[in-house]
Amino acid sequence: MMRKSFESWMDSQLARVECKLDELVCANVPAGLGEVMRYGVLDGGKRLRPLLVLAAAQALRADGEAALRAACAVELIHAYSLIHDDMPCMDNDVLRRGKPTVHVKYGEAQAMLAGDAMQALAFEVLTPDEDAGGGNPVAPPLQARLCSLLARASGVQGMAGGQAIDLASVGQPLDEASLQDMHRRKTGALLQASVQMGAACGGVGLDSVSWDALTEYGAALGLAFQVVDDILDVTQGSDVLGKTAGKDADQNKPTYVSVLGLDGARRRADALHQRARAALERSEVADRHWLVMLADRVVERQS
Amino acid sequence: MMRKSFESWMDSQLARVECKLDELVCANVPAGLGEVMRYGVLDGGKRLRPLLVLAAAQALRADGEAALRAACAVELIHAYSLIHDDMPCMDNDVLRRGKPTVHVKYGEAQAMLAGDAMQALAFEVLTPDEDAGGGNPVAPPLQARLCSLLARASGVQGMAGGQAIDLASVGQPLDEASLQDMHRRKTGALLQASVQMGAACGGVGLDSVSWDALTEYGAALGLAFQVVDDILDVTQGSDVLGKTAGKDADQNKPTYVSVLGLDGARRRADALHQRARAALERSEVADRHWLVMLADRVVERQS
Prior knowledge:
homodimer; Farnesyl Diphosphate Synthase; two-stranded antiparallel ribbon; 14 helices
């Protein structure tokens, strides 16, 4: 029953996100750039980050335009990072979400520019103008807070910094602490920020115990996501994943499986799953069931 | 006398910007990324955009931390765009500000990542946390306004969109209207936003007549800058410019000189200069002298 209502909650949230992204990423921009951006972000992906934003916002009974915009902004950052990471000078990947990567389809220059424009668009989305009545769908102090959280998760202390460590660590033996530091930044920071941005939409009602607990939930879930990614990279084929499987091992990149072994990685994913659930228990927010089920989904997913 | 005090005003503002950028772009970030970012932004460039931010803020008697952060944020966006534009898949340039371009020195992957991280950093810089006393050097509603202006100037309707038109126009005959549309976006939007961000730091005191006049000043100055750039590209050598001269003609890119001829381009620059000065006259701000002199400098510069 709960499982069924979770699926239907996910479907309805995904439809909202898809519809809003379709509106925000216009085709009607110069020189075909809109088409490239739309190819890179629409109609694909698990949309885990937007779901985390919306689940966290709904846990705090906040579910308006601000949360939906935050959900789209986080996905735009994620999508731009995939476009740039796939380029020849980075991971040089040709397949993503079961389709040719952006640079394969549109060329490197357009791929780089589309990624750059998508990062800017994320911050445009968070800072809407006043509407005709002088109101704003996102109150300016909340705009500022959301921009702050997203920028820090995307930058040198977050995703871009993690990517730099990743680049530097190819062929290097990394111990587990260094591997964890890399992933906390590279994928963890944006997943954690998704939870925080949703919670921020809940406004002033959130006590610091709950903020810290939700932050801890986001951090544990973020690492669990990466551990599971590393497991799936060696246990599933490209057809299931929609991207090239086994690349990390081929490129001699350290992973949780290479450092902990397959069984060790599975135990680590379970431990992080428990930590995420325990953090949610400590939070004093009312409606945490979608957050619980998203954590379950992250660990139990097969692709 | 005025000329001498303008030079000394510029020197003191440039010192403030350089010092703040040095603080904001830390070397102490993962895997050498900080060093790449510092190479890309410190110790070089005319800093026209930061000077416009600070001159506009000072015209409104606003000259605190907010204006200085806005000045640095705009320069970070400009510097990231140069790094990405110089890459082999875009303009493939090897010389910038008299030094090897970032990708020549550090490789393409680091150049792309450093640019990405610098765009994020611009928005981090605009959204500082509260200080220990619970105050904030940039009030949250102003943070939101600055993020909004900067994101829109950087994105599809601004710089990135203009760059896309530029890419698509190589070898194409562009009429003057299309050339102007490209430059309004590619370089004009960020120069105009520099003036607007400085004015926004002046806060609620600014009437809409002055806002519109300063916006018009920024737009005219932004186009004048590009016209002069096109003139210098054919009249100066690489040693004077600190970047590869004559590239646009070599790459068969439309420029103001190719469309209007050298004399026509010079007349256009003068007309835009007059438009910028006339707009300033219409504004009701008190201290517009640095803005006047910056417009003079943009048109009279030799490099």
